[in-house]
Design a protein that fits this description.
- It is a single chain.
- By secondary structure, the chain is mainly alpha-helical.
């Protein structure tokens, strides 16, 4: 009976410990939930405040911002080519803008952080005397509580630190928001600096901020997927792709006067060719633009989560003094997701640069292959068809007969 009771007691203890193990959420699941919360917060502020005045202002516009995507010509084919090349330009421009915004600003900070800091600053200015009196009263109450009740020094320290944090946030709202948003911009710029050192270029000079690298990559991305097909649609060649945007109209006009074939392309006499070029350009840029858009969205969610966790860190870090249990919860619920969001943001930023570089390399290799096969496309196709026919003829007698048919006479005699 004792052995049975002991076994029953052991059996009752094991299921009691099992729910505790099942209740522990994995780090990947916890990070995914945090990112989902960041996505919901970002979507909410985007819907509530879709405009970002002054966020996209650039005193030095790039070439793609000054490009005039316009195709002349009448007819259905020219209208289709015009629509397709404008859609291509919109996709390329949107993906470039998302990459630039990821390095310049944190979207959640622009949409919600700056407004919250301004509102808190206005509230502080309007109620300065009341807030000062409340702070002094809270400090005196904390001292009286420590003298009369004599609580544990950890509890008293946590209360004092929380009072200091609230006072700093109320008196320095702009600095607090700026410091919380800074890591979300520093991580992508650090990844770009890594790309700059790993793949240096002679045109970058000695600057270490990474902006020349980003500008070079994104400008080449625009030229490969928009400027080259647009130049071919206007002139039949890529002569306008590398020309400055302000001089392209003069170059096109000079070519139309001197070369009659260019004039046919410019006025829209090559409708089928234009439609084919526009369709291929749209199909070429679509997967890269979608990939860059998805990576930019992941980076924006990680930036939002990083901003919220950095801001919450001011209030949760004092709990590290409370005890070991609080420190474990702090590491698991704040520090680990913080480092995870940094890793996700770094990975999304690095993959964005890799996608841009892969798109540029693929387009360049495609052009090289086109140059190598120029004038020899049909001979290469004929050689491929002849070789395939000879291979089938050589393997023909050795192949087994299809089901339902009798074997050939030669094979029957051999058997």
């Amino acid at each position: 009976m004792r052995s049975r009771v002991g076994s029953m007691d052991g059996a009752t203890r094991i299921p009691a410990a099992a729910p505790l193990d099942r209740g522990q959420v994995r780090f990947r699941t916890l990070l995914f939930r945090y990112l989902a919360v960041g996505f919901i917060l970002l979507a909410t502020v985007v819907v509530a405040n879709p405009g970002t005045p002054g966020a996209g202002a650039d005193p030095d516009p790039w070439d793609y911002q000054r490009e005039q995507v316009d195709v002349q010509g009448r007819g259905a084919l020219n209208a289709y080519a015009r629509t397709a090349v404008r859609a291509t330009a919109w996709l390329a421009k949107s993906s470039i803008e998302r990459q630039r915004d990821m390095l310049r600003l944190s979207l959640f900070d622009v949409l919600a952080g700056a407004g919250a800091a301004e509102s808190l600053g206005g509230f502080r200015a309007a109620n300065a005397q009341l807030l000062e009196a409340a702070t002094k009263a809270a400090l005196l109450g904390l001292i009286a509580w420590g003298v009369v009740r004599r609580p544990a020094w950890r509890t008293l320290t946590v209360a004092a630190l929380l009072l200091v944090v609230v006072t700093v946030v109320l008196t320095r709202p702009y600095t607090t928001v700026e410091l919380a948003a800074r890591p979300g911009v520093m991580v992508p710029n650090t990844m770009l600096a890594v790309v700059t050192r790993v793949a240096p270029d002679g045109t970058m000079g000695s600057e270490a901020d990474g902006e020349p690298t980003q500008r070079r990559l994104l400008t080449q991305y625009w030229r490969s997927f928009v400027a080259h097909p647009l130049s071919r649609m206007q002139t039949g060649t890529t002569v306008l792709a590398d020309a400055p945007p302000g001089k392209k109209a003069n170059v096109l006009e000079a070519l139309r006067k001197n070369v009659s074939a260019v004039n046919d392309w410019a006025v829209g006499h090559r409708g089928p060719e234009r439609a084919f070029i526009a369709t291929s350009a749209l199909g070429y840029v679509l997967p890269f633009a979608v990939g860059l858009g998805v990576l930019a969205m992941v980076a924006a969610c990680a930036q939002t989560l990083l901003f919220v966790l950095c801001l919450a860190g001011l209030f949760v870090l004092p709990l590290a003094v409370a005890g070991r249990r609080h420190r474990r919860a702090l590491v698991r619920l704040w520090l680990a997701p913080l480092l995870g969001s940094v890793a996700v943001l770094a990975g999304a930023s690095l993959l964005s640069f890799v996608v841009v570089r892969a798109a540029e390399t693929l387009h360049a290799s495609d052009e090289y292959v086109g140059l190598l096969l120029a004038g020899s496309t049909w001979p290469a196709l004929a050689a491929f068809l002849i070789g395939r026919w000879l291979t089938r003829r050589r393997r023909g007698p050795g192949l087994p007969p299809p089901p339902g048919r009798p074997a050939p006479a030669a094979n029957a005699q051999r058997s």
